[in-house]
C-alpha cells in the first residue's frame, strides 16, 4: 500500500511536464492520430497553450496544486468526431510514455482508469 499521491508518483510538476512533452510528440508520430496533432507544429503558440492546459489537467486531476483553466473535455473535443480507434490510440500513447518514464504498473493502471472514465466526454462529442 503506497501513501504517495498519484501526482507524486507521476513525478510532480517536473515529471508531468516531461510526460506531456513526450505524449504530444508521440501523438504526432502515431499514424493513427497524427493528423489531429501535426497542424499544431505550424502554430507553436497555440501548441504551448494546449501543452500548458494538459500539464494543469494532469496535475490537478492527480492531486497536484495546479488549477486547470482549459476547456471542459466536451468543449475541447467538440466537433472533432473522435472515434474509438483514435481514442484507444491516444490512450496507448499515454501508457507507453508512462512506461518509458519508469512509472510503475499500478500507477499506469490508475491513469488508464481515469482515461476510460473520460471517454464519454471526448468521443463523438
Ligand atoms: C485520455 C483522453 C484525452 C484527454 C484526457 C485529453 C485531454 C485534453 C486536454 C486537457 C486538452 C486541452 C484543452 C484546452 O486547451 O482547452 C486537449 C486538447 C486537444 N485534444 Fe485531447 N484529450 C484526450 C484524447 C484526445 C484524442 C483521442 C484526440 C484525437 C485523436 C484529442 C485531440 C485533441 C486536440 C486536437 C486538442 C487541441 C484542441 C485545441 O485546438 O485547442 N484528444 N485534450
TrEMBL record:
Keywords attached to this entry: Heme, Iron, Metal-binding, Transport
Gene3D superfamilies, sorted: Globins
Binding-site residues for heme, renumbered to this chain: 53, 77
Single GO MF annotation: oxygen binding
A single GO BP: oxygen transport
Pfam families: Bac_globin
Record carries keyword Transport: yes
UniProt cofactor(s): heme
Keyword Phosphoprotein: no
Protein known as: Hemoglobin
Species of origin: Halomonas stenophila
Top-level taxonomy: Bacteria, Pseudomonadati, Pseudomonadota, Gammaproteobacteria, Oceanospirillales
Amino acid at each position: 500500500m503506497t501513501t504517495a499521491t498519484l501526482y507524486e508518483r507521476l513525478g510532480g510538476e517536473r515529471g508531468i511536464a516531461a510526460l506531456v512533452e513526450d505524449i504530444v510528440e508521440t501523438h504526432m508520430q502515431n499514424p493513427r492520430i497524427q493528423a489531429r496533432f501535426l497542424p499544431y507544429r505550424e502554430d507553436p503558440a497555440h501548441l504551448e497553450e494546449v501543452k500548458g492546459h494538459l500539464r494543469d489537467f494532469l496535475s490537478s486531476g492527480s492531486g497536484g496544486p495546479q488549477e486547470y483553466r482549459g476547456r471542459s473535455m466536451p468543449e475541447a473535443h467538440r466537433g472533432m468526431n473522435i472515434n474509438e480507434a483514435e481514442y484507444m490510440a491516444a490512450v496507448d500513447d499515454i501508457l507507453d510514455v508512462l512506461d518509458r518514464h519508469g512509472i510503475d504498473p499500478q500507477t499506469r493502471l490508475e491513469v488508464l482508469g481515469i482515461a476510460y472514465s473520460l471517454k464519454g466526454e471526448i468521443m463523438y462529442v
